[in-house]
Design brief:
single chain, alpha/beta, Purple Acid Phosphatase, chain A, domain 2, 6-stranded mixed beta sheet, 13 helices, elongated
């Protein structure tokens, strides 16, 4: 069943990828003269880049090497470029279509761009390159977001704790030693009491993670009350049991539909990812069964990778729910899609008496590029 679902999913993704690339390619091809060297170079370069991501990921499974890394990196950047090239070409085609109805672009006749259309293609490609480069620089430096939550009641003494939250690190070929060291350094600089990792800690395959010994770097997080994690959809794509075992071998407590007491009044619940069943995992437990053993007067924090099950959490008396998954689109304008899909795409919200925070993530998936948002580590100063 898992294999069939993967084949269907992969087929849809590959079809969309090919159609989008063909649309961009054919619009660019028309700007180069038949038989010219530029046309030949454009064709070879375009389809090499377009195939790189899938080629790199396939090679990783067969033989992990510098060649597979090269294709994966090139293909990852191409995914970002593809989005903005598509938008540019689509906007140009809309203007041309509008010009058929209302010919307002007559002044462009016999201009330099019209007589040398390949310069327009080169200009759009250059602008896209600079945009993707800026987005990459933005993506590799996580910011620290501070959030204060005061859930103390006047009729009892309160406790306080500093929590560092990191989601969607996506350890792997793209998020390697330099970026992971930077994330860990930022976390340790905040001197948290407790660190929570809310899913997608690893990016599917464990082989690049093991080769680069990324677990050892992650294991250098310092927090007196420990590091607690939960699974995300990417742990399941690559094999949740293997990913969990690897992370636990490096000192991270992984909660899979289970609860753990931090102290007498603070409990952490880690949910299995809501889509785990689609990738071969079992159906996750009802939250009611998980929280049954938690004292009624305890402050309960739930790590639930995807920000979907807010009603269930609120009905079960959860005080704070922490999620990631959305990356807030990662690249504009995809944030409009995640905002439409989820009750909260990024930031703080309150649902009844329950506090909620959705992180944009500390790492990145696919393109190591962020445009329109920033990677973050969230420091929560909690009074309860």
């Amino acid at each position: 069943m898992r294999v069939i679902q993967f084949i269907i999913f992969f087929s849809i993704v590959l079809t969309v990828h090919l159609l989008v690339n063909y649309y961009i390619f054919i619009r660019g091809l028309r700007t180069f003269e038949q038989g010219s060297l530029l046309r030949q170079l454009y064709t070879i370069g375009f389809w090499t880049l377009a195939a790189s991501f899938f080629l790199g990921r396939t090679l990783e499974k067969i033989y992990l090497s510098h060649l597979s890394d090269l294709f994966t990196w090139a293909g990852s950047f191409w995914l970002a470029a593809m989005l903005y090239l598509f938008l540019a070409v689509f906007i140009i085609d809309l203007l041309r279509l509008g010009n058929l109805a209302v010919p307002v672009l007559e002044w462009t006749k016999n201009t330099f761009i019209q007589t040398h259309p390949h310069y327009l293609t080169i200009g759009i490609a250059s602008a896209t390159f600079l945009l993707v480069l800026a987005g990459h620089i933005n993506a590799i430096y996580p910011r620290v977001k501070t959030l204060e939550i005061n859930a103390a009641t006047p009729d009892r003494p309160y406790d306080s704790i500093r929590i560092a939250l990191a989601t969607d690190i996506h350890l792997g070929t793209i998020v390697g030693p330099k970026r992971v060291n930077r994330i860990v350094s930022r976390i340790n600089a905040q001197q948290p009491d407790l660190v929570l990792l809310a899913g997608d800690i690893v990016d599917e395959d464990l082989a690049p993670v093991i080769r680069q010994n990324l677990g050892q770097i992650l294991g250098s997080i310092k927090a007196p009350l420990g590091v607690i994690g939960s699974t995300g959809n990417h742990e399941y794509i690559g094999g949740a049991d293997e990913a969990t075992a690897y992370l636990e071998s490096h000192g991270i407590v992984m909660l899979r539909d289970s609860a753990k007491a931090v102290n007498d009044r603070l409990w952490i619940v880690g949910r299995n990812d809501i889509e785990g069943m689609r990738f071969g995992g079992g159906q996750r437990k009802p939250l009611t069964d998980i929280v049954r053993s938690i004292p009624n007067d305890a402050f309960t924090i739930v790590l639930d990778h995807q920000p979907r099950a807010y009603a269930e959490a609120s009905e079960n008396g959860v005080n704070l729910i922490l999620s990631g998954h959305t990356h807030h689109g990662q690249m504009w304008p995809l944030n409009y899609i995640t905002s439409a899909m989820f009750p909260l795409s990024w930031g703080y919200g309150k649902f009844g008496e329950m506090h909620a925070y959705v992180s944009s993530g500390a790492g990145s998936w696919g393109p190591p590029v962020r445009i329109g948002n920033v990677p973050e580590i969230v420091v929560i100063d909690l009074r309860y």
